[in-house]
Every structure is written in structure tokens, then in C-alpha cells.
UniProtKB/TrEMBL annotation:
Transmembrane segments: none
A GO molecular function held by the record: transaminase activity
UniProt keyword annotations, A-Z: Aminotransferase, Pyridoxal phosphate, Transferase
Matching InterPro entries: Aminotransferase_I/II_large, Asp_trans, PyrdxlP-dep_Trfase, PyrdxlP-dep_Trfase_major, PyrdxlP-dep_Trfase_small
Source domain of life: Bacteria
Species in which this protein is naturally found: Megasphaera hominis
Name recorded for this polypeptide: Aminotransferase class I/II-fold pyridoxal phosphate-dependent enzyme
Family: Belongs to the class-I pyridoxal-phosphate-dependent aminotransferase family.
Transferase keyword on record: yes
Residue ranges annotated for the Aminotransferase class I/classII large domain, each copy included: 44-405
Record lineage: Bacteria, Bacillati, Bacillota, Negativicutes, Veillonellales
Amino acid sequence: MATSIAAKHAKGKFAADAIMAAAARCTEDIEKNGAAAVINGTVGSMMNENGDLVVLQVVKDTFAALTPEQIVAYAPIPGFQEFLDAAIDQCFGASRPDGFIRAIATPGGSGAIHTAVHNYSDPGDEVLTTDWYWGAYRNIARDDNRILREFELLTEDGTFNFQSFEKNVTELVAKQYNTVIILNSPANNPTGYGLSLEEWDRVLDFLKQAVAGKDKNIILVSDVAYLDYSGEKEECRQFFKKFGNLPANIMPIVAYTCSKSFTLYGQRLGAMICVTPEEAIADEFMAINKYTARATWSNANSSAMWTMIEITKDPDKVARLDQERAMYFQMIKERADIFMEEAAACGLKILPYISGFFITIPVTHADKICDILEQEHVYLVPLKKGIRLAVCSVSKQKITGLAAKVKKAIDAAGIVQ
Ligand SMILES: Cc1ncc(COP(=O)(O)O)c(C=O)c1O
């Protein structure tokens, strides 16, 4: 009997998700032993100090006040214009780059990244990202018959690895018409690293040089999923200004999402936002990405768009939004500070964390170490080259003492970091 009838490109695909698998084991443990006994460091959404999912209060209030029509009506294919204007404004803040800026509503940052890859690379192309990356990038590339290629994000001393970046970009530009590069900064998932303004300058200068005078293009997908919890509101956005005045064959596309910024994760709303000096390229961006929207999800979630519109048109609500985000940024920072201080004290190495939802402990045999930790009711996510801890979801009380537990498990597994 036939065991597969899938098309050739789909055969053998399955989403083995280490995060979901660890989360499922954790849920089982909680059911058996109670939440107090278990540390769940797998969840990539913010949990408050009581372990409950954070929904920003201003979002809760605004969502609850929507009319049935706002909730159920179809939206235009590219999204409501008020939403697109608000998304551009919320994304860039005071650091709006110069140039033609256009946006299309997408189902979260995922939809934005997928569509950028789909419309700016060809089947068989390699798409470049960092070796520490959010696992879904690989699914997005492979599902679209592209190949994900990694460069090393960090040097030995924990700064951006220009050598690896430049080598990989040079090779890709030599062999492809378009090179799509996905950079998740600030607050990289899973490391918490972010490029400094000087590092951004050097990255962009190199990209200019790499395609100068060539019929080649670079599409820089700037994944800013954790932007609103990465630092002071305007300071963490300063790098966006550098996306203006680039040559026309380098186009930043910002993958903006309301998942974390508005705690609207499951409502599936984001935007892809382009910056280009050429109006024709901006028009093409709208045309081709609207086409893909129509061909896939059609139109984005009206209720999430209206929630965003209603908040951003009211200065009092914006002030509440900013204040709540700042409070939760502080909550995550305090947790990360505890972990980093204790890690330093017990000799546990971690990757350079600046901000964001995750801290990574670089190790080999992460699976083995995570198994040992799970016996202690501690659930973290094993990655290829490390272990990911979600500081967004572990309370200060539970994070206290955790570094020593991880160190002990690494020693017990006989691993030297
Ligand atoms: C690095 C990164 N980019 C993008 C996303 C996109 O999420 P969403 O599609 O919910 O906006 C996530 C979510 O976990 C992420 O970790």
C-alpha cells in the first residue's frame, strides 16, 4: 500500500519542533506535580510574576470595546490604510528613514518573512541568516524551495562577526541575482544579542560595496519581533534611520509584528514595511506582495488591526501602551540580570545577552543536559549548539538559583563549555 502521495517538493517534510516538544513534557509535569514545583523556561510569550500570560491592559480594554463590525468585516487585501500608517509609525518611531516607505499587513512577522523570501529570492536560492536563529526561518526557506544558509553571528569575544558575514554575502552575491539576508536584531532570538549602531554602519557599508555597480540586489529582512522590549523606546529604534538613502539595489524590508508589541500573538497580525529610494520599486513592492497576500491568507485580521488603530489614534492610550511596555521590559531585564549575575558567580557561560525574551547557554549535547534538568522539573529548549532559556516567562523567584542548576546539569553530563 502506498505510504505517501505528497508532491515531490513536500515529501518528507515534517515540523519537528523542539520548543513544542519540551513545552508538552512540561505541561505533563505541571499536571502531575503542580505549577509551583516546575520551572517552564520554554514559553516565548511574556508571563507575569504569577506565571499568567501577560495581555497589555490597554490592549485588553481596546479589544473589548470593538464593535462586531470591526471584528468580523473583511479588510482590504493590503490592510486598512489607518493600520498601515500606524504600523509604520509604531515601527520606526522618531527614526523613520528617508525614502519611499510602503507597508502590507501580514499574518504576524512570520507572514512578512515568508513573503519577503517568496518574492525576493528564486527557487533554489540560498537565504542567509545568523547561525543563532529562530528555527522557523528554516521551515520558511525549505517550504518555499529555498535553502537556509548560516553565517556566524558572533566572534570569540562576543561581537558581530564581520568576517563570516562578509564572506557569505560575497559568495551569495557572486552566484545569485538577489540575496535575501534575515537579521533578527535587536533582541535576537535566541541569544539576546543586538547590533550596535557602529555595527549597523559597517554592515550597511559592506552591503553597499558588495553590490555597487552590479545588476544584483540585496534584500535585508530586518526582523524586529522583540523591538518593543529591547530598550528605551527611541534609543532602540535609532538604527532604522540608517535604512534611508541606501542605493536602490539594497532594500530593507522590516518584518514588524503585533505579536509581542501588542501581546496579540494568536491574533496573527504584522506588517512588511519596505524602504527604498525608488518610487517604482516601492510600487512593485505593493503590487507583488498584495498579489501573494491574495494568493495565501487573502486579508489580515480585522479585529487586531482595529485594536491597533484605536490605540494609536489616541495619545492617552499610546501613553499607557508605552508605559506598560516599559514596565514589562524592566520585568524581563530584572530576571535576566539575576540569571546573568548568578551565571557569572557559578562559572556558567552564556552568549552575550543585551535584551529580549531569551538567553542562550552555549553547549554541546544540549539534549542530554536538558534531560537531566527535566528530572529536576526544569524545562528549557535544547538547540543545536546551546540551550535556550525564556526569561520572558520565568518569574524572578523561579529564576533565582537556576544558573547553578544548569551548571550542575552541564557538569553531570560531563560537558565542558
Ligand atoms: C525571531 C522571531 N521573529 C519573528 C517571530 C514572529 O512571530 P509572529 O509570526 O507571531 O509575529 C518570532 C516569534 O516567535 C520570532 O521569535
